[in-house]
Amino acid sequence: MYRALYRKWRPAAFRDVVGQQAITTALKNQLLHDKVAHAYLFTGTRGTGKTTCAKIFAKAVNCPNRTDADPCNECAVCRGIDDGSVLDVVEIDAASNNGVDNIRDLREETVYTPSEGKYKVYIIDEVHMLSTAAFNALLKTMEEPPPHVIFILATTEIHKVPATILSRCQRYDFKRIAVEDIQARLLEVAGHEKIQLDEPAAGLIARLADGAMRDALSILDTCAGVSEQVDEALVRKMAGVTDRSYLFELSDALARQDAPAVLTQIASLRQASVDMKRLCDELIVHYRNLMLAAVPGAQNLLNGVSREEQEEYERHAQNISAAQAVQCIKTLCAALDKMGKGVDARIELELAVYELCYPTPVVQAAPAAAASAAHGGATVFAAASVAAPPSSQAFVSAPAPTAPTPQKAPVAAPQTTPEHSAANQGQETPFEPWAKVLEVMQGKDKLLSAALKDSRAYYDGKRVLIDGSELFLEYMRKNEFSSEMVKSVLQQVTGVRYPIGPYKKKRGQETENQPMTADATLEQLSSAGVDVVYINETEGE
C-alpha cells in the first residue's frame, strides 16, 4: 500500500528533525544526563514537528539500545511504539476525547507500571480542546504523577491552556521552519523518491507551505502524482495558485482610484473560483510587502518571495507610500474580520476596495467667515458637507469621476495662534462651530446629545465654555467619559483639541437670555401686524 510522503519521511530520530535545533538539543541533553521531566508542553503552528518530537522522545526514554540520545528504531520497543503495539506509549486526540470521563480513565491507568519500557508516556495532541472539567481532572495527576509517567502535551493555541497546567510543564515553542530549510529537505526527498524537482518549484512549494514541513511534503506528493517532472508551472496549477501579477494589477488600479477596474477584476477572479477570503488575505500580504519595499532598509524582510518578485515589489513601491500601504492593510483586515462573522465575503471585499478608492475626507478647520445674526449676536457659519461618491450602479457601468465634486465651505473654527489667544484672553465670544458639534453628537451619543440640546458655547481664547443647566454641568464634572466625548467631537469637527469648561453668566445676563413668555411672544407678534385671537376657555364650557 502506498504511503504518503509526509508519513514515509516523518523523522524517526532527533537528527532528522528540520528547523528545530534548539529544542532537539535541549531534549537530547535531558536524555543524556538522565534529567527527564514529568511533563512537557510543545506549542507551535501546524506541521512544525511537535507530535514527531513527542514520539521520538517517547521512544528514546524507553529504548534499551539507545545510541547517544536517539532511539535505535530497531529493537522491539521502538518498532512496537511505531506500529502501536506497545501500550506504554498512548496517543490521545483531545479534539475527540475532551470530556472529563476520558481524563478520569487516563488517571486510573497511570497507577499501573509500564509493561515493556521504563516509562508510560501519554501524548495528548491539541490539548487546548479539553473541557474545563477535563483540565481540572488532569491537574492533580500532573501535579503529583507516579514516577513512571511522563506527559507530553501538544497544542497550536497555547493561549487556551490554563495557567495552572502551563506552570507544571516544561514549555518548548516550535517556530515556523525557514523556507531555505524546507526547500533543502524537499530536494533531498525528491532525490530519494526519483522525482525530478527543480529548485524554483521547490522554492515555491516551500513558500506555499508557510513554515509547515508536512504541508510542503503534501504539495510535493500531489504534484508528483501528476508528473515525475515537477516544475514551477505544475506547482502553481496543482496548488491552485495563479500568477501574482493580478495582485499588482489590483493595487495599481486602487492607486489610480479606478473603482470599475478593481471591481471588474474581483468579479473575474470570483468567476474563476478564487475564494474571496483568500484573495483578501493575499492582498493584505501584498500590501505588507509593498510597505516593506517602500521603507528604506526593510527590503530584506521580504521573506517568502522570489528574487523576481522582490524586484517587482521594489519597482511598484515607488508609486505608493508606506502610510498608504498601512491604510490599505487596516481596511482589508477590517473586511477580513467581518468575513469571519458570516457576512458575504464578496460584498465586504467590494466595500473595502470602494472605500480605498473613495476615502472619506477629514473635516478641516478653516478661518471664520462670520456674519452677525439679528438675535443674540450669534454668528452664522456654513456646515461642512462631504460630496458622496457615485452610487454603486453608476461606477460599475461608468468610468470613475475625473474631477472632484465641489464641496461647501468647511466648518469655521476659532483661530488658535498665540496672538489670537492672547488678544481674546478673558473675552468670551460665541463658539461658531457649536451647532455642527451638536449635529455630530447626535450620531455619537443620544443621551449626551439630548442633554446638550439648545445649549450654547463660548470661546475665551483658551477653552470652550458650555452654557448649560446646573444639573448638566454637575453631570459633566462627575462623568469623565462624557467630557472626553465632547472633546473628541470638538476635535473631529474643528481639527483642534480644545479643553472645555462651564460658562458662567455675567450679572444681568441671566434675565437677558431668558426665553420670552407666551404672553410676551403674542404681544410681539401682534405688534408686528399678525392677527392674534384670544379664546376664553370658560366661554366654551
From TrEMBL:
Pfam families in the record: DNA_pol3_delta2 (PF13177), DNA_pol3_gamma3 (PF12169), DNAX_ATPase_lid (PF22608)
Enzyme class: transferase
Gene3D superfamilies: 1.10.8.60, 1.20.272.10, P-loop containing nucleotide triphosphate hydrolases
Protein name, entry field: DNA-directed DNA polymerase
Region span, Disordered: 397-428
Reaction(s) catalysed (UniProt annotation): DNA(n) + a 2'-deoxyribonucleoside 5'-triphosphate = DNA(n+1) + diphosphate
GO BP terms in the entry: DNA-templated DNA replication
